[in-house]
């Protein structure tokens, strides 16, 4: 059976782990608190920021998924977790590095600095303006120059179970200016997991993967439209003293390349995704 290490087995990583366990894969989950790993996942208790190879590291690894979550936007933390952390994990492969079939490094559409509503694809310039975005670009460089087959998956804003912030803001009467439109890109947690699973299955089938994919739904949307739709669903009125948008930048990301591989989102727009959340 294929062996995969999911380094940074948090929300997305744990959901992916459960999917792969159900397929009969041997799944290792790396995180500091291994008591929170899903059933059937073999634990690797480790800190990605520590250089020493974990005692539980498996002898053979076919696939590596690097998907930690920083928890806060801090440039120094991003550098240690995403850049040095990935360097550590690749180092832990040791001589087994030559046998690795594929590395998936989870990144973010935050690496793009476009802010005038431009359409963005994998071939668009990635010139992150923020220090955290620059750290993510540096981590992508580590992955793609690692000497192993690798793909970067740039995920848009993830929403889903436990990620209800925008719903709560809409319920509190959030207002967003309609002009100029602030285009946003998002992906449901289950679709992000589905894309990662799909790419691993493609690699297992010996399909050639591209160096980069954008993980977004089918419809970039102006934030004021999303918020207005959510207010209507929860029966809230716009309020002058409601939360305002602190968002900067505006771009529209295309998932055309990911779709060309045969992947399709279960929640193609924010409407289906948020409706499912509200139904729960």
From TrEMBL:
Pfam families: Epimerase (PF01370). GO terms for molecular function: aldehyde dehydrogenase (NAD+) activity. One of its GO terms (cellular component) is cytoplasm. It comes from the Bacteria. InterPro entries: Epimerase_deHydtase, NAD(P)-bd_dom_sf, NAD(P)-dependent_oxidoreduct. Residues 6-168 form the NAD-dependent epimerase/dehydratase domain. Gene3D superfamilies: NAD(P)-binding Rossmann-like Domain. This is NAD(P)-dependent oxidoreductase. The lineage of its organism: Bacteria, Pseudomonadati, Pseudomonadota, Gammaproteobacteria, Pseudomonadales.
